[in-house]
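Thread: "does anyone have the structure for this chain?"

Original post by V.I.:
We have the sequence but no experimental structure in hand. Need at least a predicted one for the grant figures.
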Amino acid sequence: MTAFPGDRGLDPARLREAFGIFPSGVVAVAARVDGVLVGLAASSFTSVSLQPPLVSLSIANASKTWLDLRRSPRLGITVLADHHGGVARQLAGPVERRFDGVQVALGDGGAVTLADGLAQFETAVHREVEAGDHTVVLLELHAVRQAGGALPLVFHRSGFGLRRSA
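Reply from O.Q.:
Generated one for you, tokens below.
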């Protein structure tokens, strides 16, 4: 039997690499705040509960975008499709260009979703829980739409699509 290495492997770079082995989907989180489209891409989206209907995100405490988004009464969550790699990069780029050329739909309370996403959710912040250098955000669902056909965008090993290690 091999001994587990203990805490010797817990430096941030090694953790990021280990966490990256687990593939995850990618969502756009967006709202119209003070008349301006605000959004980000997240790979920490997960379903939490059916009753009440809840989902969660994990947001870096350093995120300035989240400070704006959380002021909106409603947030839009869009599950991105495999052709959205460029959109995901754009949503992680310069704030003033995140929605350039992106078709969006405006929902209740300022929720913004991408018109061609695999699923769109209109949500409201239910609770925020501090968790180290991130905040776990529980969102209550108020509406859902879904489309079929395309495959989801997958984030794996710090890139889009599944990759084998070298």
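V.I.: this helps a lot. The chain has one domain: 25-148.
O.Q.: and The helical segments are 12-19, 64-69, 85-91.
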